Amino acid sequence: MDILRSTLQPITHNLPSPIRNTAISFLGNQCYKALIHDIDLSNTTCLKLAISKGLGIGIIGASAVVKIPQLLKLLNSRSSEGISFLAYLLETASYLISLAYNFRQGFPFSTFGETALIAVQNVAIAALVLQFGGRGPAAAVFVAGLAAAGYALFSESVIDMRMLSYLQAGAGVLGVASKAPQIWTVWQQGGTGQLSAFAVFNYLLGSLSRIFTTLQEVDDKLILYGFIAGFALNAVLAAQMVYYWNSPSSKATPATKVQRPAKEAIGMSSGVSSSSSPKGKSPSTRRRG
């Protein structure tokens, strides 16, 4: 270790100002001096803080793309099979409240930044679920309602900090409850449908990492308990993903529902009806329409 320290210290003692200032802003003066300037890895307190910061930045980076596979699956299939709109509604509401609470409390961005990025992706996914479910006008109402709620949550003149604390307690419940409709949908349909495995497993790892970063950087039990409960239900959803991994399509696929009226329309346009075919004739040609 002494050899490594003597090799690296000429570099760490002469870091450019932008790099040094950025590191100090993340670690603080004391931990910057211990870990980077002096390369003292025996300082466990600062080492845990550095790991927490690294995990936080990694989570934020991953959150920028965590829902992209889900968006692509929806757009390519043009089907919302296996995806619960209620789950996305509850999760987005929970994230919006948590984002406002963390921001107004002045917590480090590395401990909550992913909520903003995931919330934006959730809005897009929820709108597509409504659109492909035949409820296009409801998507506009959904987005407008979230915009109004966001304005109220970030405005101290509308919602004070005391009320926001109560809402944050409710947001933890919403976050946990948001997983229940998705778990139920997967179980009910007997498959995961268009649910993205990438998003599910990233959520599992992200919620586990957030428990660690919250313990290290945020002294707030409301947030901690929310992440613990979320991790438990994310584990259930991940287990379902593994269990149904090689299962066939879910019990009720939208494809069969779409084909039936198409066949009836063809039969009507050709003047042929399956019910009007004579009993003595072979049904093979008439019933094809």
TrEMBL record:
Coiled-coil spans in chain: none
Family annotation (Pfam families): PQ-loop (PF04193)
Biased amino acid composition, Low complexity: 269-283
Keyword flag Membrane: yes
Protein's cellular compartments: Membrane
Domain of life assignment: Eukaryota
Ranges annotated as spanning the membrane: 82-103, 115-132, 138-154, 224-245
Entry annotated with the keyword Phosphoprotein: no
Annotated stretches, region: Disordered: 250-289
Membrane topology reported for the UniProt record: Multi-pass membrane protein
Alphabetically ordered keywords of this record: Membrane, Repeat, Transmembrane, Transmembrane helix, Transport
PANTHER family in alphabetical order: MANNOSE-P-DOLICHOL UTILIZATION DEFECT 1 LEC35 -RELATED, MANNOSE-P-DOLICHOL UTILIZATION DEFECT 1 PROTEIN
Protein known as: Mannose-P-dolichol utilization defect 1 protein homolog
Natural source organism: Cryomyces antarcticus
